Amino acid sequence: MQRPLPFPDRCFDAVFLEEAIEHIPHCALQDALSECLRVLKLGGIIRIVTPDLEYFASRVAADLTGGDEINAFFYNHGHRRIYSKRAMQVQCQRAGFVNVRFAACQDPDSRLGYLDTHADRYGRNLQISLYLEAERPR
After folding, report:
1. Residue 95 lies in a domain
2. What's this model's pTM, rounded to 2 decimal places?
3. How far apart are CA 67 and CA 123, in angstroms?
4. Containing domain of residue 121, as a range?
5. Suppose 40 and one of 44, 71, 89, 109 were both cysteines; which one would form an S-S bond, judging by CB atoms 3.0 to 4.6 Å apart?
């Protein structure tokens, strides 16, 4: 098991993970999400922005050079795992999150969407990332 986050239980209203979980080994993801749940207040929200496996798979299927794109994506940025929407949803639910939903970049209906910066930094390709939100049960 990884080291716990250095925060007390239920101390934050929100956790924002933009371009972070893809750097965590898959075997440590559940522990990481469980720690996020632990530090959230009841009803607190997590927002996860991470590369979308479905986007990259569609690029590989559509074009032979897509293989180069996905390999560069992994090896040039230190990524450890890329998730589909369904896989990310399941991982969050297993950690104990509820009301898991997918959002849009800078979603005005999101409490945390205003924090999204990845699309602005990487050419406004909104399809490259998935945006997920979930809550700690009340």
Report:
1. yes
2. 0.90
3. 20
4. 13-53+79-135
5. 44
Instruction: Note whether residue 116 is domain-resident.
Output: yes
CA atoms within a 13 Å half-sphere pointing along the CA-CB vector of 121:
7
Q: Note the pLDDT tens digit of each residue in 13-57.
A: 999 999 999 999 999 999 999 999 999 999 999 999 999 999 888
User: Residue 88 has which token pair?
Assistant: 């990310």
∠ CA 51-104-111, nearest 5°, is: 110
Query: Based on the structure, what is the number of domains in the chain?
Result: 1
Write the CA distances from 95 to 32, 54, 63, integer angstroms: 9, 23, 36
Domain of 112: which CATH number?
A: 3.40.50.150
Is 132 within 8 Å of 16 (Cβ atoms)? no
